[in-house]
From TrEMBL:
Domain named ABC transporter: residues: 2-220
A GO MF term: ATPase-coupled transmembrane transporter activity
Classification lineage: Bacteria, Pseudomonadati, Pseudomonadota, Alphaproteobacteria, Rhodospirillales
Protein name per Swiss-Prot or TrEMBL: ABC transporter ATP-binding protein
Family: Belongs to the ABC transporter superfamily.
GO cellular component, one term: ATP-binding cassette (ABC) transporter complex
InterPro entries: AAA+_ATPase, ABC_transporter-like_ATP-bd, ABC_transporter-like_CS, ABC_transpr_CbiO/EcfA_su, ECF_ABC_transporter_ATP-bd, P-loop_NTPase
Pfam families: ABC_tran (PF00005)
UniProt KW keywords: ATP-binding, Nucleotide-binding, Transport
Length: 224
């Protein structure tokens, strides 16, 4: 479970999250809101990339402020732009990087890399330069690089924004089939209609918290 207790965060004098308290237990949760609503900051708090100015964020009982490394082992994060996440020259090296950093045995690294590349139809790119892949393939590579670490939760920050229709559908299907719990920040309202819960942020506060069938129309109505 991910829990926030009285969380506030500011950049200088500008507050972006204001006294948030919530528990996230559901398998699929969407975070919706306009630009500047605080949703990306909230997403980064869920795995300790950002710690709150005040308040507490815990993941399965681990405090992001004091147990950041352990939290990041439990919560994977997929960025909107895969180029931010892809750091090694070849596909195989990039997927295996996190495992190597955790000092996983070489034979186990090879097994897990092979498994995740097969799962996401990336095996044919195994020895190819990552930068030569298409945008959709890079997004799958970024996802594979997170999932090979076998986190308990995965946070996605606008995973379909840069994708064409075919690759959007592929990424949506990947998220649907994940065994892990997922929190997805998105503007893609159709994507989240089968999720378990949707949170709508406005000026750093949660203004709607409901199932998507209720939350999404209410969010659209607030947009005027």
């Amino acid at each position: 479970m991910i829990e926030l207790r009285a969380v506030t965060h500011a950049y200088g004098d500008r507050a972006v999250l204001r006294d948030l308290s919530l528990s996230i237990r559901e398998r699929r949760v969407a975070i919706l809101g306009g630009n500047g609503s605080g949703k990306s900051t909230l997403a980064r708090m869920l795995n300790g990339l950002i710690v709150p100015s005040s308040g507490v964020v815990t993941v399965d009982g681990l405090d992001t402020r004091t147990d950041g490394r352990a939290v990041r082992q439990r919560v994977g994060f997929v960025f909107q732009n895969p180029d931010v996440q892809i750091v090694y020259p070849t596909v195989e090296e990039d997927v295996g990087f996190g495992l190597k950093a955790r000092k996983v045995a070489k034979d186990e690294i090879a097994r897990r890399v092979t498994t995740v590349l097969d799962r996401y139809n990336l095996t044919r790119y195994r020895h190819q330069p990552a930068h030569q892949m298409s945008g959709g393939e890079k997004q799958l590579l970024a996802i594979a690089g997170v999932l090979v670490l076998e986190p308990a939760h995965v946070v996605f920050d606008e995973p379909t924004t840069l994708l064409d229709l075919r690759n959007r559908r592929t990424v949506i299907q990947v998220i649907r089939e994940l065994p892990q719990k997922a929190v997805v920040v998105t503007h893609d309202l159709d994507m989240v209609m089968d999720f378990d819960r949707a949170l709508v942020l406005e000026e750093g506060r949660i203004v709607i918290d409901d199932v998507p069938a209720v939350a999404v129309p209410a969010y659209v109505a607030r947009l005027g």
